[in-house]
Design a protein that fits this description.
By secondary structure, the protein is of the alpha/beta class. Helix content is 39%, strand content 21%.
Length: 314
């Protein structure tokens, strides 16, 4: 491991216990910064309500740390929107944001559009499929941004159990993302959960970053932030254990392909083939191929969007 990364691990890796709630709240009041929590959601009626309720109860009502909770519904066919609204979130449909640019499916697309409908100086992203959710996931990652002006982006780190086995979750992280980062961006080798969906950043940084529209958004954001603000502006906080719905093997394969494509685009911005991934499923006549496009569309930095600039002036 690089000496720079070893030093970073001692100076930019913390535990949620390092910043108690009263210290974080005092820092927020002193700085005057506002905090938006964004949950991207697609058919998450089983979990999104409980997450919103915990954030509202613990971080809005008991400790006034969070200023707004926004759920961005990316086309749910279940009761995600109704459940989230009943729990206390403001719900916005993906297609209602920046309608002049037709939306495309993908998590990164939703995160990018969320910048237009939130106001916080700090934006905190939380996945909507978490179970046994703790407010530490929010307070832990916004804490360093409130107490240390040099920090620009903070990722959560945690254990990810799979079928009761500790540390066996995060298969795409271990099989794809971690090898890519160690080989091509070794400064980022210290991140425990580089693909984790729980992270917070200053709006001023987020609006300068391009957003891959799909699963590559977390890796792309981490790599681009490293180049834009440097390693010492990035940090991570241990928030405990993350329990969530796990994807099947084929879905993980498509996720890995998108992440590899995101890395490829950052390694060589020239002409590239438009890749596809072929997988196999057993049908009535044997194994049948299924081919998926993994070309990674990216949205430009939000600072370049006229509607966003006009909103900030207003």
């Amino acid at each position: 491991m690089l000496e720079e990364v070893e030093r970073w691990l001692t100076t930019r890796s913390w535990s949620v216990a390092d910043r108690p709630p009263h210290k974080i709240l005092a820092a927020k009041r002193c700085s005057g910064q506002s905090i938006s929590v964004v949950l991207p959601a697609l058919n998450e009626e089983a979990t999104v309500g409980a997450i919103v309720e915990v954030i509202r109860r613990d971080l809005v009502e008991r400790t006034p740390l969070v200023d707004e909770i926004v759920v961005i519904d990316s086309g749910s066919t279940d009761r995600t929107s109704e459940v989230a609204a009943a729990a206390g979130a403001r719900v916005v449909h993906r297609d209602a944001i920046l309608p002049r640019i037709p939306s495309v499916p993908g998590k990164g697309e939703v995160l990018w559009r969320s910048l237009l409908v939130t106001r916080g100086d700090i934006v905190c992203f939380i996945d909507a499929d978490l179970r046994e959710f703790s407010a530490d996931f929010v307070s832990g990652i916004v804490g360093p941004l409130l107490t240390d002006p040099d920090v620009q982006l903070v990722k959560a780190m945690y254990d990810r159990p799979l079928a009761g086995a500790t540390g066996q979750g995060g298969r795409v992280t271990e099989l794809m993302a971690r090898p890519l980062l160690n080989m091509h961006w070794p400064q980022l080798a210290g991140f425990v959960q580089p693909l984790g969906g729980e992270y917070a950043a200053r709006r001023g940084l987020l609006e300068q970053l391009p957003f891959p529209v799909g699963y590559g958004v977390e890796l792309g954001m981490l790599v681009d932030a490293l180049h834009l603000v440097g390693l010492d502006a990035l940090a991570q906080v241990d928030v405990g254990v993350r329990k969530h719905r796990h994807q099947d093997g084929q879905a993980l394969g498509r996720m890995a392909a998108a992440i590899y494509r995101t890395a490829q685009l950052r390694l060589a911005r020239g002409h590239l083939l438009r890749p596809a991934l072929t997988q196999f499923e057993r049908g009535t006549d044997g194994f049948e191929p299924r081919t998926y496009s993994v070309d990674t569309e990216e949205r430009p930095p939000m600072a370049e969007i006229a509607e966003y600039a006009a909103r900030r002036v207003a």
